[in-house]
Structures are given as structure tokens and as C-alpha cells.
Amino acid sequence: NAGVMQNPRHLVRRRGQEARLRCSPMKGHSHVYWYRQLPEEGLKFMVYLQKENIIDESGMPKERFSAEFPKEGPSILRIQQVVRGDSAAYFCASSPPEGNTGELFFGEGSRLTVL
Amino acid sequence: AQSVSQHNHHVILSEAASLELGCNYSYGGTVNLFWYVQYPGQHLQLLLKYFSGDPLVKGIKGFEAEFITSKFSFNLRKPSVQWSDTAEYFCAVNTPRDSSYKLIFGSGTRLLVRP
């Protein structure tokens, strides 16, 4: 499905800069999940949001990372003062509001490279 | 905490060979189980899922998986692979007891099918 839109697809930042990754869920979906995939590793859960609410941020690093999903507009994952270890693929997924069973619809990912 | 293990990180097969990818999870309660596939350059997409009922689940493209409760396993199988099955395969689990229904992924298995 091409319904979950992420941008940018590729982002290059220097250490200390900020990275903003955007995710528009599928039409009608109000649940958004962010995952990070480090090289040669699986996807690690970061945060789960519903419109205007962070529901589960148990996978978010304590510092420099934040996420939001405003009433209008895309969900944004923000990384402040990036370091080389933040280089990864960041995937967004969405699910419908009713009968959420965890079947997720993924975007194509945003690949962050920190120089 | 839940975890998912995929023991085969890389698998190479010739076309028409049979495939079995291992997946074990650790969680004592009710689980939902998933296999996702990521073809080169594409987003993750659902291959099959198990919520309840018949432990032998049929998915798309001729894939199937069997949930064996006693072994905490959900191995993926296909009797005869094709070159187009070259992709990375991820096993994932969640539990209804976690209201966020977040998926916990294994580290993935990269399958290369040689023509």
C-alpha cells in the first residue's frame, strides 16, 4: 500500500543539527507508530500516538527525541542535536481507530544519515 | 518483556526449493503473531497473521505459518520458492494485554533466491 506517506525519504544531517521526519497516515487512520531500524537489526518500537496524544513512548530515547501528532497535519518525529548513532531508517506505520489488533500499514521509511 | 528471535539471519536457496524460516517468541500470555515482508526498495507489508483459531495460517503468495503453542514458535513456510521471493522477512508479536498493540519485531531474515 502506498497510503502511508513519509518524507523525506533520505535526510543527511551533520552532528548537532536537527532532523524532522514526517508521516501522514493512511486515510481514516488515527493511530501512528514510529519504529527505528539500525543497520543489521530489526525494527525497534519508539512511540505510539493518536491524534494530539502520546499513548506509549516506552521506546523513545530519554533525550533529544520527541514526537507529535497534531489535530491537523502529519505526525512528526524530531531528533535534536543528532549524533552518528542516530543514523538509521525510521519507519512510520498506521492503523485504523476501530478494532486495533496491531496489524500495521507501513510507509517506505526515512533514512537518516548523520555525518 | 516480550522478545522475538529469528535464528536465521541470511538464507540462500535455489528456485523451487522449500523454505522454512524460524521464529520463536517469549511471552506467557495470549499473543497475536505476524509475518511481514520487505521486498528490495519497498515498504514492509503483511504476509500473514494469527489471532486465534486454526494454528495453520495461510497467507499471500503461497506462504503459510504454523503456530505451535508448546514451542512458542510461528515458523514461516513455502513449499517452492521463486526468485521474486527474495526479500527480508520479519516475524512480529503483540499482545492484547498491551493496549497500544505495538508490534515487537525479530531481527529479520534475508532470503536470497537464486534463479
Can you put this structure into words, describing what you see?
- The complex is a heterodimer of chains A (115) and B (115).
- Chain A is 0% helix and 49% strand.
- In chain A, strand 4 (31-37) and strand 5 form a beta hairpin.
- In chain A, strands 2, 4, 5, 6, 9, 10 and 11 form a seven-stranded mixed beta sheet that branches. Chain A has a four-stranded antiparallel beta sheet with strand order 1-3-8-7, with no helix packed on it.
- Chain A has strands spanning 5-7, 10-13, 19-24, 31-37, 43-50, 53-56, 65-68, 75-79, 88-95, 105-106, 110-114.
- The radius of gyration of chain A is 13 Å and the shape is globular.
- Chain A is built from no helices and eleven strands.
- By secondary structure, chain A is mainly β.
- By secondary structure, chain B is mainly beta.
- Helices cover 0% and strands 50% of the residues of chain B.
- In chain B, strands 2, 5, 6, 10, 11 and 12 form a six-stranded mixed beta sheet that branches. A four-stranded antiparallel beta sheet of chain B has the order 3-9-8-7, with no helix packed on it.
- Chain B is globular.
- In chain B, 36% of the residues are buried.
- The mean pLDDT of chain B is 92.
- The A-B interface holds A 1, 4, 33, 35, 40-45, 48, 55-56, 59, 91, 93, 95, 100-104, 106-109 and B 4, 6, 32, 34, 36, 42-46, 49, 51, 90, 94, 96, 99-108.
What is the topological layout?
The complex is a heterodimer of chains A (115) and B (115).
Chain A: E1 5-7, E2 10-13, E3 19-24, E4 31-37, E5 43-50, E6 53-56, E7 65-68, E8 75-79, E9 88-95, E10 105-106, E11 110-114
Parallel strand pairs in A: 2-11
Antiparallel strand pairs in A: 1-3, 3-8, 4-5, 4-9, 5-6, 7-8, 9-10, 9-11
Chain B: E1 3-5, E2 10-14, E3 19-21, E4 24-26, E5 32-38, E6 45-50, E7 56-58, E8 64-68, E9 73-78, E10 87-94, E11 104-105, E12 109-114
Parallel strand pairs in B: 2-12
Antiparallel strand pairs in B: 1-4, 3-9, 5-6, 5-10, 7-8, 8-9, 10-11, 10-12
